[in-house]
Input
Amino acid sequence: MEGTVTSVLLAGIATLLAYLFLFRNAERRRPLPGMPGPRGWPVVGSLFSLGELPHLRLMEMSCTYGNVYQLRLGSQYVVVVNGIRAIKESLLKQSVRFAGRPAFPSMNFTSKYVGIVFDTYDDMWKYQRKIIDSSLKPFTSGPTALEEVVTSAAVDVVNNLTNHGNCGNGKQSDPYDDLYTAVGNVTCFVLFGKRYSHDDDNFKKVLYYSKRFVAAITGKGNIVDYLPWMTFAMRKAFAKVADDLSLITRFVGEQINHHSSHRDGIGSVMDSLIRIRNDSERTEGCALKTKTDVERVLCCLFGAGYENTTSTLYYLILYMIIHPEIQYKVHEEIDRVVSRDRLPTLSDRAKLPYTDAVLQEVIRHASLAPLTVPYSTLKDTDLLGYKIPKDTPIFVNLWSANYDENEWEDPHRFNPDRFLSADGLSVKKSQVAKMVAFGMGKRRCPGEQLAQLQLFLFFAIFMHQCHFEKCEGDNPQLTSVYGLTLRPVPFRVVTKHRGPD
Ligand code: HEM
Output
């Protein structure tokens, strides 16, 4: 009985606090005068009306409210930007005004461990972003050891996929884990200058924690951004995410300790960061002074690139089994240009325009990062005639730009030819530039070139070596689930080795 009374009292106090918090926030968060948008439900607004694939619902809403509209999500008003014109007007033409990040609880929390991506635009961000850009550059300009690492990781995947359990005349498996491990290894090489054996305990652990972190942070993980009074109910989920992030940070910290004492990993991103940190006393304004600063940057790069690159490869295999006629044309081009005697290399890329066009069309059509990380305005601003005050959270719908009917003919059709020149001999640069799968403006993905390079080489080697088919009785579809980004609903594939001729 005593316990019940205490519980009721605690519940009463929690409710009172919740309403005070909500009321206080509601006072600070008002609708933007004159900007259209749905009214939403009491208390939650449109929070639960966005569905499992919010980018689609947000694009649908733009038919009613236009390309710039406001939404109330719980106690928070946000502005949604759709379509290529409105995205360019904000992220390109007013790039600094739109470069901030909102102080959402989930972002503040994650940014303790992960740098750059959730940090707002300030001198520290600018400094660290410059360092990231320059330390990734050596991996994408000119011949690098990266090519050898990607080739060996791709060959491992081919061997694993063609050796999994039998399914009729070929081997069947869900390729996701093999791709995840391969991309993990390439990422560790770039960041730490180190490759791991697939059985390495530390490597296996960090892959496992990264996966668990993604599973925990997705779904309802950030509901507290819009309903702050839910913080109490979500504390367990947050504690789990904190555990996983601490473990990933510990792994990164161990790489730094190992590097400092053994001086290996020369040429890795970590190597550049440690050099800058060691010089920090002599460098004015250096924003990389402590081991924690270095860890935050490395954790950011580890998290930001890994999942996206793996999911793109997963999509590539799925599109190939759903479009065998396109797979056939890629096989034909690779065999004709490269021959069966050797593996494709990066220097073949310009001579493999169809293969490249298929990759670009998968990146556009899958648009696996459909919504950017939320932005925030750094000053009062105007966007296509609407006034937006400073500190307004902005959702940018990249999906809507990649499916904008004013830019792409029949955008829902999977059609690699849209990226080819009229004579079919090259990829049209103007079409690739039109795609906004890697964002735009100040926050544009710094790993774009690295991702493009890896994806092309992995894909070309897979297609040179393998024939992908769906398993008998399976009916894989191009349906996606939202994780941190989109990824296909898990599927199985029959992988046949293509042999020497
Ligand atoms: C297919 C692969 C990839 C895709 C589709 C992708 C997509 C994106 C997108 C759309 C953004 C912009 C988010 C925004 O506007 O807020 C972004 C940001 C970012 N990406 Fe990538 N990315 C990929 C691979 C990589 C790789 C390989 C790395 C690094 C090794 C990387 C590092 C980052 C970082 C650090 C940011 C944050 C930038 C900032 O906030 O200033 N990404 N990525």
